[in-house]
Design goal:
7-stranded mixed sheet, 12 strands, alpha/beta
Length: 350
């Protein structure tokens, strides 16, 4: 089984868009943050899944050395294969995507996982995920031929930021009058897994839909009722395709949860300690950079803690199951101070 994540950076051809957790970070700071996330991701996965083949797809050709540490060299030392791949086929048209443009790079990766030379079974995850323990049932699910998706649907008419699943379905049916559902299932973009045939089925739907949307809207992107573009995040395009699949799918809820750990909003649960994978969007500027320092130190406790205790050890940095109990968590939250100071200096200069 291949366990995969991706790292896409903005360049002169692909101008930066808005990233919710990283809006105050410069381009180089974003690069470093993403490499820190990738490092923690693969360190946790190689501990929990030592028999898996680990792959990083990236378009980043710049130096990845900070404070004397070459992150790519470190990852190769863990056995991670780093594959350079351009960001071309699923790049949203200029001006069409204001948020999370780099997320569409995952579609390029999915396209690769559908090719005849790809691994028999692959699991693609966001880089701000961590593994807490081995989970044989997850690999067994993939090897059985099942497509693994993450259903995070709410009530059909409950609005989040001014948009419900029914609103999403309304636009999809405008674009494709024969679209099979009025209220599409909302699948999280942080996980997709399956056989090579599963990814081929996805791309057989996604590629022509992408081409049709782009060709039919050369000047302005299709927009939802709240004004968001269908290109404001890769989830809108993958949900469009996933809901058209004939292949049955299996819900990944028993394996992963999207956990919010921000000071202003937290939905952490004690039961999160039982999950093998945590997706931690709020930790890109908090616990993950701090934990990456432990990962990069071969003599740190990260590499010594027994595997059954790994989740609790990492939770002290990442706010799971409680946010302000351990000194390590206070250290993680203190990383926000440097961000606040940079923003204050920026405001004082204006």
């Amino acid at each position: 089984m291949d366990i995969i994540t991706s790292l896409c950076v903005d360049d002169e051809r692909h101008p930066a868009s808005y990233y919710d957790q990283l809006q105050d970070a410069s381009a180089d700071q974003r690069r470093r943050i993403y490499w820190q996330c990738v490092t923690v991701f693969f360190a946790t996965s190689t501990r929990c899944n030592p028999a898996a083949h680990h792959v990083l797809y990236t378009n980043d050709r710049g130096s990845t050395t900070w404070n004397g540490v070459d992150f790519q060299q470190f990852l190769r030392g863990l056995g991670v294969e780093i594959r350079q791949m351009p960001f071309d086929n699923f790049q949203p048209p200029a001006g069409f995507s204001e948020r999370f443009r780099n997320g569409f790079y995952k579609l390029e990766v999915m396209q690769q996982l559908a090719r005849p030379e790809a691994a028999d079974y692959s699991l693609l995850l966001d880089s701000d995920c961590v593994w807490t323990r081995p989970e044989p049932a997850l690999e067994a699910t993939l090897r059985s031929g099942q497509l693994l998706l993450f259903d995070i649907s709410g009530d059909p008419d409950t609005e989040v930021l001014g948009m419900s699943r029914r609103h999403i379905g309304n636009l999809y049916r405008e674009l494709f009058p024969d679209y099979p559902t009025d209220v599409p299932v909302y699948f999280g973009g942080e996980l997709v897994g399956g056989s090579r045939a599963c990814f081929a089925d996805i791309m057989a739907k996604l590629e022509p839909m992408w081409q049709q949307v782009v060709a039919a809207h050369p000047e302005q992107p299709p927009r939802f009722a709240n004004g968001e573009s269908i290109f404001d995040g890769d989830e809108y395009m993958t949900i469009l395709a996933y809901n058209c699949l004939d292949r049955p799918w299996t819900d990944a809820h028993s394996f992963i949860r999207r956990i919010w750990t921000a000071y202003r909003y937290s939905d952490v649960r004690p039961t999160d300690l039982q999950l093998p994978i945590w997706h931690l969007p709020s930790e890109k500027l908090q616990g993950l950079p701090v934990l990456s320092r432990q990962v990069l130190n071969p003599r740190s406790r990260f590499w010594q803690v027994p595997l059954p205790e790994l989740g609790r050890y990492m939770g002290r940095y990442l706010g799971v199951p409680r946010s302000l109990v351990h000194p390590q968590r206070l250290l993680s939250l203190s990383t926000k101070l440097s961000t606040a100071w940079r923003l204050t200096k920026r405001l004082l200069k204006t």
